[in-house]
Amino acid sequence: VLGCGYSSVTVDAATYGRASETVMIGYSATSPRLSNKELYSYFLRLCTPDSAQAAVITDVMQANDWHQFAFLSTSDAYAQGLADYVAQLEGERTSLQLKGAYHSVEFA
Q: How many Å apart are CA 32 and CA 4, to the nearest integer?
């Protein structure tokens, strides 16, 4: 079964896939929750999870010697999850400093 376009929907659908022992392939679901093979043993991912994307973002910031940053995002699950992971990595990498909390923006 080809997975859903969003992680939030894929998480629910993958639960049913496990119950029915049906393999689901996610082409765009990036939620790290889906990496839990105990819960989602029949789910396969074709793209990297948010945690890997956040690591690249923070690597780029460090490589460019950027020490302060702000994170501006939409309020959907993908953007919030990615912002959370960047903020978490910022806490682990002492050379980076998040300027205030990240901000969500609604686009009409």
A: 15
Answer whether residue 40 shows pLDDT above 90: yes
CB 89 within 8 A of CB 71: no
Q: At what angle do helices 77-92 and 50-63 cross, to 10 degrees?
A: 50
Query: Taken in order 74, 1, 11, 42, is the CA torsion positive or negative?
Result: negative
pLDDT tens-digit map of 71-86: 776 767 677 777 778 8
Here the tokens at position 57 are: 């973002």
Q: Are the C-beta atoms of residues 10 and 44 closer than 8 Å to each other?
A: no
Q: CA-to-CA distance for 62 and 94, rounded, in angstroms?
A: 10
Cα(2)–Cα(66) distance, rounded to whole angstroms?
39
Q: Position of tokens 């074709």?
A: 46
Q: Is the pTM of this model over 0.70?
A: no
| Single-letter code of the amino acid located at 63 | A
